[in-house]
Design a protein that fits this description.
Helices cover 25% and strands 17% of the residues. It is of the alpha+beta class. The protein folds into 2 domains: 169 residues, Nucleotidyltransferase, domain 5, CATH 3.30.420; 57 residues, no CATH class. Strand 2 and strand 3 form a beta hairpin.
Length: 297
Amino acid sequence: MATAEPPQPWEQVDLLSLMAAPAPETPAASQSAEPVVAEPASEPEPEPVPAAAPHPTAALGQPLPQRLLILDTETTGLDPQRDRCIELGAVLFDLPRRSVLSQLSLLLPCDQNAAQAVNGIDPVITQQPQPWQQGLQWFEALLASADLVVAHNAAFDRQWFGIAPLPSIHKPWLCTMDDIRWPEERNLRANPSVRDLALAYSVPVWAAHRALTDCIYLAQVFERCDDLEQLVQQGLEPRRLYRARLSYEERHRAREAGFRWNEPVSGAWSRRLSEREAALLPFPVVPVDGEQQRRSA
C-alpha cells in the first residue's frame, strides 16, 4: 500500500499519521450556571468561588519550558513499597520546533511480575544481559537537559523515582491527564486515557502498556498541537484542591468535569484546579482547607 508522503523519521508509517489535525477553536466562555441545590452542612462553608470571565494565559514569572522530557514507567504492581519499576521509556521533545530530539527505552531486572497480564513483560526477558545501568546514565543526561518532566497520570509515575535503581527527579512535572485542559472540539473526557488522546489527534494506536509506546503517542500528539505553548503554560498554573457543591441529583456534573468521588477527599467530589479553572466551572466549588489537603497529599 503506497503512502502519500514519507513520514517523519521517528513516526510509524501510517496514513492516519499524515493527516493534518483540524485547527483548534477558541474554547467557549464559561457556561451559565444551572440552579444548584445547596448541600446541608453542619458547619459554616467557605464562600463559593464566584464566576469570572476567562483571562489570558497566566504569567508564572518563569519562561516557558523549551525542552520536555516525556516519560513513562511499567511496574510489577501499584505500590512502590512492595513493587518495582521494570521498564522506563523517555522522549526528549523540543517544544518550539515540535520535534523529538532523543528517546530511550530499557528494561530493569526483576524476578517476578505480577502485572505481566497487563504490561506483557516476562521477568525472564528482563534478566537477559543488557547494559541497563548505562541506560539509566543516559536517562539522567536526558533529564539534565530538560526543563520540564511530562507524564500521563504523573502522580503514579513520579512516586517510583528516588527508589533504586531510578534516580530522584527535582524538576517540575506536568500531567497530560490532570493538568492539561484539552480543546473541547477534541471531544475528550476531562481525564482522558493515552489511547483516547492519541486517537483524538489522529495518532495511530498500534500497541499499549509499554513505556516508550505511550511516550511516542504523547510526542505525536504534541506535534499536532498548534496551541501547545498555551496548553503547557496553563497546565503549569498553581493548583489547589477544590470540592464541588452540588446536590446528589447533580453529581453527574462533577463527574463530567473530572472530579473524583471520595478521592482524595472522603465523602466529596474533588479535583485540583487553578483559580482560573475554578472560576470557569458551570457550578460552584469551594477550596478544601489546608488540613484536608495535607491528609489527601
